[in-house]
Design brief:
By secondary structure, this protein is of the alpha/beta class. The chain folds into two domains: about 1-100, DNA primase DNAg catalytic core, N-terminal domain; about 110-225, Dna Topoisomerase Vi A Subunit, Chain: A, domain 2 (3-Layer(aba) Sandwich), CATH 3.40.1360. Helix content is about 35%, strand content about 15%. It is built from ten helices and eight strands. The strands form two sheets. It has a four-stranded antiparallel β-sheet with strand order 1-2-3-4. A four-stranded parallel β-sheet has the order 6-5-7-8, sandwiched between helices. Strand 3 and strand 4 (about 100) form a beta hairpin. The protein is globular and about 55 Å long. The termini are far apart.
């Protein structure tokens, strides 16, 4: 019910739509498919209690903070959808710490059910990396929601025989590429072929497309991996 409420808010707040556009997401059909929403703050504490959910329950699950305020205030919600909503993710559009989940596991790889039978899978760190690649026509992409993969996510990649393209960030401290190298070793130990996609210095897939990259350029990076 919280995620449905947030989806209803998105079109009412131009700052949220503008943020999505600035991050390269302009396809309204993809916004609906991914069930992206927005938390304007202050409204959820009225909406859900009016439908029988207590403040205490909302605090216990993490939707409200200790002060009773919306814990996801001013955050965009790419919701991880499988058959069920496992968790919610908030990406701040302001100056607050950018990433927030509800307490508990982040679950498996994002939209894994769409790619689990693909012989080649593109793995990215972030959801906006995922979004721009999907928008560009790459349908064999999934996200680990960070460089640290959970045990459940690793087990998903270990299923079957496939090639995994690791399109992690190329950041100044090399944390993304170091994580990709470590993951390549772990996958290789389970007979999973890996290819490290070397993006231009200082870029992740999202920034590459925001700054003018296109599907042909990214395809050439895949072929060079």
């Amino acid at each position: 019910m919280a995620s449905a409420f947030y989806r209803q808010q998105l079109d009412r707040y131009p700052e949220a739509i503008n943020y999505l556009g600035a991050r390269g997401l302009r396809d309204p059909d993809l916004i609906r498919e991914l069930e992206i929403g927005y938390a304007p703050g202050g409204s959820l504490r009225r909406h859900l209690p009016a439908r029988g959910y207590s403040f205490e329950l909302l605090r216990q699950v993490g939707l409200l903070n200790a002060n009773g305020s919306d814990a996801f205030y001013q955050r965009i919600f790419p919701l991880r959808q499988g058959e069920h909503i496992v968790n919610l993710y908030g990406r701040s559009i302001g100056t607050a710490f950018p990433h927030r989940f509800l307490p508990g596991s982040k679950g498996g790889l994002y939209a894994w059910e769409k790619v689990r039978h693909c012989s080649e899978v593109i793995l990215v760190e972030g959801l906006f990396d995922y979004i721009v690649l999907r928008q560009a026509g790459f349908h064999n992409v999934t996200s680990s929601l960070g460089t640290h993969l959970s045990a459940d996510q690793l087990l998903q990649l270990y299923e079957g025989l496939r090639t995994v393209y690791l399109a992690f960030d190329v950041d100044a401290n090399q944390s993304g590429q170091q994580a990709a190298l470590q993951l390549a070793h772990r996958l290789g130990a389970h007979a999973i072929a890996t290819r490290r996609v070397l993006l231009p210095e200082g870029h992740d897939p999202n920034s590459l497309f925001v700054e003018g990259g296109d599907a042909l350029q990214f395809q050439s990076l895949l072929e060079a991996a």
